[in-house]
Amino acid sequence: MNKLAAEADQFAENVTGKLPDNNNVEAIVCAPFPYLPSLVEKAKASKLQIGAQTMHFEENGAFTGEVSPAMLQDIGVTYVVIGHSERRELFGETDESVNKKVHAAFAHELTPIICVGETLAQREANDTMTHIKAQVRQALEGLNNEQIAASIIAYEPIWAIGTGKTASSEDANEVCTHIRHIVKDIAGEETAQQLVIQYGGSVKPANIDELLAQSDIDGALVGGASLEPDSFLQLVEAGTK
After folding, report:
1. Could you give the 3-state DSSP secondary structure of residue 144?
2. 203 near 227, Cβ under 8 Å?
3. Contact between residue 113 and residue 81 where contact means Cβ atoms under 8 Å apart
4. What's the average model confidence in pLDDT over 17-44?
């Protein structure tokens, strides 16, 4: 929940013309709802993609204050973050609602960025892998292999978000590899290899190269370090190496 309208527009203007000309790199800004139409318009002639930070799973109805997938599709949004840890912790989202939102996203041609991750207590109790497995399996329940391959799963250890703490690149990769193995069990090797797996948790220009060098980390879900154009562009540039 950052920036006002003029700041969001300025960010887009500073970024859109400077993205690397590399088809292997995707740059996505997931912004607050009020600024999405303007950002979609400003990003039209660039490689920048625009996503939402959440949505409801129903197409319309008496859900005061919510935004539907049909609305996002209507204004040209192409991605949506689903099940971010803050949404789960602060707004009561569950594995069940995450699954409903994933299905709704595909029904409206939106790519879901599905967030999974453990708390510090779960990590210290050696429950990380069991917890992640349950979250991934429930999030993907009922999807076909094509949909699973088109999804993005973001591993965000909750204890490393906004704390300055980062899982070591090896620890992060261990969980991302675990996620790929879970998807392989669900949908086969080919689907698992097509799936994009991100790491999120105090990612910044200083550590992104090491993270992206790991075998099963395909990208990054970035919070605070992505708010300034120069930092955002450094993070995107790291994906070209």
Report:
1. coil
2. no
3. yes
4. 95
For residue 167, what pLDDT is reported?
82
CA dist., res. 214 & res. 176, Å (int): 9
Identify the active-site residue in 93, 156, 178, 237.
156
Amino acid 110: pLDDT: 98
Count the Cβ atoms, other than its own, within 10 Å of residue 93: 19
- pLDDT score of 165 more than 80: no
pTM higher than the cut 0.90: yes
* β-bridge mates for residue 180, sequence order: none
H/E/C letters for each residue in 149-197? HHCEEEECCHHHCCCCCCCCHHHHHHHHHHHHHHHHHHHCHHHHHHCEE
The string of DSSP letters for 14-56 reads HHHTTS---TT--EEEEE-GGGHHHHHHHHTTSSEEEEES---
Q: Which residue among the candidates 84, 93, 118, 178 is catalytic per the annotation?
A: 84
Tell me how far the alpha carbon of residue 154 is from its chain's centroid: 5
Of the candidate ranges 78-87, 111-120, 155-164, the one whose mean pLDDT is the lowest: 155-164
Q: Would residue 156 show up in a list of annotated catalytic residues for this protein?
A: yes
CA distance 195 to 40: 25
What's the rounded mean pLDDT across residues 24-44?
97
Residue 182 has what pLDDT?
98
Distance (Å, rounded) from C-alpha 238 to C-alpha 98? 30
The answer to whether 84 is a known catalytic residue is: yes
Distances (CA, A) of 84 to 14, 77, 189: 27, 18, 26
What is the per-residue pLDDT for 161? 75
